[in-house]
Amino acid sequence: MTRTADLITAAVLFAIGVVVVADSLRLGAGWGTDGPKSGFFPFWLGVLLLVVTAAIAVQAWRRGTGKQFVTRAQLVPVGKVIAPMVVFVLLTGGVKLADVSLVPATGLYVAAALYLAFYMRWVGHHSWLTIVLVAVAIPVVTFVVFEIWFLVPMPKGPLEASLGF
Amino acid sequence: MGIENLLLGFQIAITPFNIFMAVVGITLGTIIGVLPGLGGANGVAILLPLTFTMPPTSAIILLTSLYWGALFGGAITSVLFNIPGEPWSVATTFDGYPLARQGKGGQALTAAFTSSFVGAFFSIVLITLFAPLLAEIALRFGPPEFFAIQLLTFSSFVGLGGGNPLKSVVSILLGFILGAVGLDIVTGQLRMTFGVTDLMKGFDFIVAVIGLFGIGEILLSVEEGLTFRGAATGMNLTVVLQTWKILPRYARTFVRAAFIGFWMGFKPGGATPASFMSYAFAKRFSRHPERFGKGELEGVVAPETAAHAAGVAAMLPMITLGIPGSPTAAVMLGGLIIWGLQPGPLLFTEKPDFVWGLIASMYTGNIIGVLMVLAGVPLFAAILKIPFAILTPLIVVVCAIGAYAVHSSMIDVWYMVIFGVVGYVFKKLDYPLAPLVLALVLGDLAENALRQSLIMSQGSLGVFFTRPIACAITVVALFFLGMPIITPWWRRLRGLPPASGAPAEA
Questions:
Q1: Cβ neighbours of A116 in B, within 8 Å
Q2: CA atoms of A53 and A11, how far apart (whole Å)
Q3: How many A/B residue pairs have CB atoms within 8 Å?
Q4: What residue segments make up the domains of chain A, in order of their start?
């Protein structure tokens, strides 16, 4: 429900406010020898955030509508975007835990190709020929534009290394 | 003096390389404006890393042209697909889409582009005249005046932005807080890092823009189960010329809309209310108000003229005061800092070639732009025929590249994902995103202005009231902040029903 979502968001923001105020007090929120201390500005931001999120929570509690925040029909396609996106980012950089590689780093271009292919098949039900063409063409074009024309390096993996980049 | 400077600017803007930059910028911008999930702000943000090695003037011409292109592109989707690419093109769909359904898409698009051009041109002329004056006045500003202007910027989001004022305040505060994370350059202390090395660099606003506007927007549009049911473009030279013959009839609408646009536009968040206000005025003064909403050409002219006048006017405070009037201008301001330029009134005296090159390029960019989009509508509209299952991952990949390129760091890509989800939730709960981005960009500047002001006054807030200019600006800012409280009270006093409120700014 929208009211619940509103209250949860306000609570999270309130918690952020508490953290900000606490850290500002640690740094000193008052007047130092040569002007306001480091914590001065964030302290007042944090205090205001506490006040305003509390007011929003009260407002949401009193006026909240019973309208659904997201319906199941909406959440499914959103989840179908988020989950592969997270896997794509994981593959791009890889995951290491205490020097043990949990997810291999494939680099951005290979991850992009796999991501495009997967999403096109899963959501779009495209034919394999289209999938292969698109999933190869797009990373190759971006590679040429960014790595070769504009010299903006992206994360690269074993495939690029074997090709000498 | 003004004319000579402008001529100097044209000499810079008309060099082949800069013209080429304008063409590239407009092409990319129009594509970005047409694509769902990519708008002016994150288009500029994604391209920003590519400009690091360019001369600053060419870089800003590329980015501003991209912005003009995105504005034009928004009109294409509004008219042909009933999808407003940006919040300020919502009013364009009211009459633009019905026109397209009646087979008059070419007429509607010609009117939209021409109106955009007229609105933009009007604002550019005013910028040419007023920017040097404003910069001259701003040269006399001290820290209290600058802080007062910052206050005015953010209070106008609260007072004029529409939506829930408390949520606007939260967005502003959150932006400032995120901006404060990391190293405090004045004292050298680490703030809110909690011993995490990755937090020491703080949050980059470019990554925030890409996440909030790019990824967040994608999530919203898949949720709506986006299907493109486009109307035919019906665009050819005859239609264009015929429409141009009709358009002078709406001369008064053009003038009124351009003034509304400029007046609303140089204040932050002004483009959306400007387009709605202009539409409402056109309807009220029309002899056939009943035709509005069913395919009246004037209903396309009014909001498009105002929105573009406002979009261009947002550049005025950015180049004169160093305070952006829109998220896109905020990203450009960030660009200025990265290119090693100090935004603010000193630019006019220290980098006249940059400022006047930019102003002149607004003229050339808009002329090139209107011709390009008039000719290229079928091409640009064809972009929306790309299947959604290809567009979505493609946009995510482009966003990820943009986020990574800022600092060559993977953590930024993760921040992008997080900002994307936050943007999605915020948008659904009506927290405005534009003030958050502006606060994130302006955080350090605002804090330093406040610090220096307080040092000048030995810690007394009275400094914002004892200096005449600062006092005047502060009072206006406080008035805007009070508006959400005053307005309902005032309406009740006069026996009016409570306002439904303008739609919230994206």
A1: 390, 393-394, 397
A2: 7
A3: 169
A4: 2-63, 72-162
